[in-house]
Specification:
Blueprint lengths: L2 E3 L1 H8 L5 H10 L4 E4 H16 L5 H17 L2 E4 L3 H19 L3 H13 L3 E3 L3 H9 L3 E3 L2
Parallel strand pairs: 1-4, 2-3, 4-5
Helix pairs in contact: 1-2, 1-3, 3-4, 5-6, 6-7
Length: 145
């Protein structure tokens, strides 16, 4: 797999928001499978649920979005990646120590970049500039749809 997509991108891909048209266009042009970790699963579920709480999405919309995620997992468009958590935390700690004082990263930003780095994806796809900047600092190519 070449590209790691963070949750900001996945949310826009599976739910409706201001970046959805960009995410859809990028996905059409880049149909290769994307890694999908336990971290993605948790953060995407929570982001969808938070959107219901914030009254940006209806419960039926997040149920439909999650069904689409499950269908993409079954079709191989998203590929489950497990067994990374301990290594991700250690990698994230090192990134935080070396880059946060300069780049101002939040913990979740660091966790996504650490995960992508451990998986070995050269490209990092995100709508979050802080994450993208950190990805570039550790040698990845930032992809902004």
């Amino acid at each position: 797999m070449k590209t790691y997509a963070d949750t900001s991108f996945l949310f826009s891909l599976y739910a409706s928001d201001l970046n959805s048209s960009k995410a859809d266009a990028w996905r059409q042009a880049n149909p290769a499978p994307l890694p999908f970790t336990a971290f993605h699963r948790l953060e995407l579920r929570n982001a969808l649920s938070l959107a219901v709480f914030q009254q940006r999405l209806a419960l039926s919309e997040i149920q439909a979005a999650w069904l689409e995620v499950e269908n993409d997992l079954a079709a191989g468009l998203l590929v489950g990646r497990g067994g990374l958590w301990r290594r991700v935390l250690l990698e994230a700690e090192a990134l935080a120590l070396n880059h946060t004082p300069i780049a101002g990263c939040r913990t979740l930003d660091v966790l996504h970049v650490a995960t992508a780095n451990l998986i070995g994806t050269p490209d990092f796809c995100s709508f979050d500039m802080r994450q993208s900047n950190l990805a570039v600092r550790v040698g990845m190519v930032a992809v902004t749809p």
